[in-house]
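Quick question, first post here. What does this chain look like in 3D?
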Amino acid sequence: MKKESAILKALPGAAAILDVNGEIICFNENWDANRKCSNWLGLERDTNNYFSHCRRAAEQGNDYALKLLIGLREVLDGERDSLEMTMAMNGDIRTWCKISISAIEAGEPLALVIFDDITANMETIKLLRESEERYSQQFQHSVSGIILGSPDGNIIDANPAACKILGYTKEELMRGGRKLIVDENSPANSEMQRIREEESIYEGEREYLHKNGYTVPVEIISVVYNDEHDGQKVINTFRDVTLEKQVEYFLEEERRFTKTVLDSIPGIFFVLDSNGKLIRWNNSIEKELGYNESELQTISILEIFKEDERGRAEEMFNNAYEYGNNGFVTQILSKNNGIRSFHLYINRFKSEEEEYLVSTGVDITEFLTSELERERNFALMTQLFENSPLAMVMIDLQSRVQKVNNGFTTLFGYQAEEIIGQNVNALITSEKNAEEAEEVSNRAISGFAHQQETTRLTKHGNTVPVLVSTVPIWSHGEVISAYGIYVDLTEQKKLAQQLQSSLNEKNVLLQELHHRVKNNLAIIAGLLELQVIYEKNEAVKQKIEEAHSRIFSIAKIHETLYQQKDVVQIEFNEYLDSIIGSMSYVAGEKKLNIKRTESSRPIMLNLNQAVPLGLVINELIQMKAAEGSGSNHTININLTYDENDVKLEIEGLKKNINGLDAADESQTFHKLLIDTFIKQMDGEISYTTNGTNNVVIYFKRTEDLRGSSSAITYRDNLLIR
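> Answer (accepted):
Ran it through. Tokens below.
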């Protein structure tokens, strides 16, 4: 048996190594000093086998010796790796020890047994028992709660601090016992009792139940000791740590809040120590740059910069340490998006005598790109402004000239230096147009684009007709200035005058043409009237009258056209009145009474629709007149329209022209003419029979002007098949 080894010698307590049979194979000098460890079991050790020693003590009624023997056996048999227990021994002096048993990994099962003297830890209990008065004072006036009880859950006594912490009176606690303030079914309570049973002491955090129903977090020391008279007792010393828990909670909330704030900072955020090591950063550094936490914990801050930027970045950080702050634009390597441009802001601060740098960075890559694009667009706009052939001026919110181009100076005769800073309206506007010019400027400055024709004055007082366009210039949601663009209309006005003169001449010529056509047709109609007077054959006379009526209808169109300003459209109401009057005169001997319903609105038709419509009406009336003499007959004509839809109704016809006798060539010719004229108008004709035969004509008014020839039916269409 080796008395001592280097490992055992280093241990402060009494220690020995036992083999599987309980033989002591090695121990330190504290183990056998005065045979102290043997005396703790209440008898002298007379054998080198510790199992036999413990068994003999157990046979004499020592419970601790039995527990020790069982624990040694469990460790050596591999049922557990270690065991700790606390023993209170009776002897000449009162002593406490803590026994630790641990398995040793070797070729055979071995156990390390260590006895530590913890008598000093139990001094408080010893003092309480030695001096009842001193214990009572400490018990009553302690700021910590103290509850004296038994292992089975009875409460023997409670000090005022315990009552205050838990909200119960001492009597209530003594009546209710441990179950009043502890959830005995909770795993935490079971674990505490287990530890206290094995080690005779428990230190840690627990929760007690307050009388008002809420839990009270406490730090507790629970000790089991042997009372000389009443057996085992439990003394629980605890203090309310609610305030500390609240402080911890608030600190944790503050930490979480700080992290949330840092993670909410736009762009990247990081803190460097004096060695340039990252000690704090926000999530954006990981998300935007693609570095994970382990990388950021090991790399130098300079490694995230583009290689040729690292020297300048180091210099900027050093300057921030020296002067307190700094800022610069640099390029940073992003694993996600390649090289990105950042604007970094650096500030120095001190905490607990240590200096740190805190830096925030904003990704300005898109901003720089947009700035380049903006500068390019500005250059293009400047070139457009300078090189535009139109006269252009830029004014501020007070209508003062800020910039002009060559077109403006050329049109109005000023030099640029003469008008910069001057009110543009005062320079180029006459008194007559001053109010109008001021309104144009105000509309532009108010954010409204505007365009109008007006006149402006040159430097020498000459009036120039111009088209003025004003365009507001916006910046960040507000108008900061405006463009004025002037188009010289001098040549256009001259050309417009020439065109108007030419148009007036053509209108006069066209009216004269209509007048001459009307006169020629009137002569032809007059000749036909003379022939009717001398013609004896009634059939021939009727044919001449029909031809006269058709020619008269056409002549009336031309007469109406040269009497009006518009030479392509006529007011058909007046025209219809004139031809009805003529027809009534021609058909007077045949007892016809032709009436027209008055229309509240005049109907304007172009020549290509007015001529065939007048001829259709003429043919229908002529057919009625051709029926022969007899009693008076009334024909009602009603002409209405809705927007472009025109409707002509003729009531009082006795003959159903939709079913004309094909053997009657004159009637067939009438129908052929009517159908042809309806087609020229792109219209429809319908016939109804209700006592008398009524005719309804529908067509859409059009502005189509296809020439005068389109109003004349081709000869082939008039041939009777």
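The CA atoms of residues 316 and 606 lie 86 Å apart.
Residues 585-589, 707-721 have pLDDT under 50 and may be disordered.
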